[in-house]
Amino acid sequence: MKEILKRIKPKEYGENYKSHILEMYKLYVEMADRISSRRQTANSFFLTINSAIIGFVGYIKISEINEYNWIIEVAGIFLCYVWYRLVRSYKDLNSGKFKVIHEIEKELPLSPYDAEWEAIGRGKNPNLYLPFTNLELKTPLIFGLIHLATIIISIPWCKLIDMF
C-alpha cells in the first residue's frame, strides 16, 4: 500500500510536498467521517422501515390471518439482508480508509489516529474498545428473526395438519 500511496518522492514533487500531504490528510479524514455519517443515515432508514413493517403486520392482527402477510415479512427479511450487507460494506470501507490514514500519518509530525488505535489495543481488547459494528451487524439479524417468527406464527398450522 505504501508504494501506491507514495507515487512521487518528496524531492521530485517540490517544496509543497508536506503542505499538500497535510491538505490531503484533512480531506481524507473528512471523507472517512462522511462515510460514518452515511452509515448512520442508512441504519436509521432500515430501522425505520423494519419497525414500520413489524408495526403494520401487528396492526393487521396476526389472529386475523391474511394469506399475504408472509409476503410483507419476506420483504422485511430481504431488507434485513441488504441492511447487513450495507453495514459490512461501510465497515470494510472505513477499515480501508483508516489504514490509508495511518500511512499518511507516517509523513506527518503527529499520528493521532494511529495513537488512538494503539491506546484502545488496536481493537483486540474488548475491555478497552468494543466496536459498535458488532452491535450494528446483529441488529438486522434480530429484525430478520422477528420477521421469520412472524411468518411462522402466521401460518395456519391447524389447517395444514387437517390437510394431512
List the helices and strands and how they pair.
Blueprint: H1 2-5, H2 10-13, H3 17-60, H4 69-105, H5 112-119, H6 132-154, H7 157-163
Helix pairs in contact: 3-4, 3-6, 4-6
Description:
The protein is mainly alpha-helical and 164 residues long. The chain has 7 helices and no strands. Helix 3 runs antiparallel to helix 4 and helix 4 (69-105) packs antiparallel against helix 6. The chain starts with a helix and ends with a helix. The model has no long low-confidence stretch (mean pLDDT 86).
One letter per element, helices H and strands E, the order comes to: HHHHHHH
Q: Can you count the helices?
A: 7
What fraction strand? under 5%
Rg, Cα atoms, Å: 24 Å
Ends distance = 63 Å
Largest sheet: none
Question: How many individual β-strands?
Answer: 0
Categorize the overall geometry.
elongated
Structural class: mainly alpha
Provide the helix percentage: over 70%
- Contiguous uncertain segments of 5+ residues: none
Overall pLDDT, averaged? 86
Summarize the structure.
The protein is mainly α and 164 residues long. The chain has helices spanning 2-5, 10-13, 17-60, 69-105, 112-119, 132-154, 157-163.
Highlighted features:
single chain; 164 residues; mainly alpha; elongated
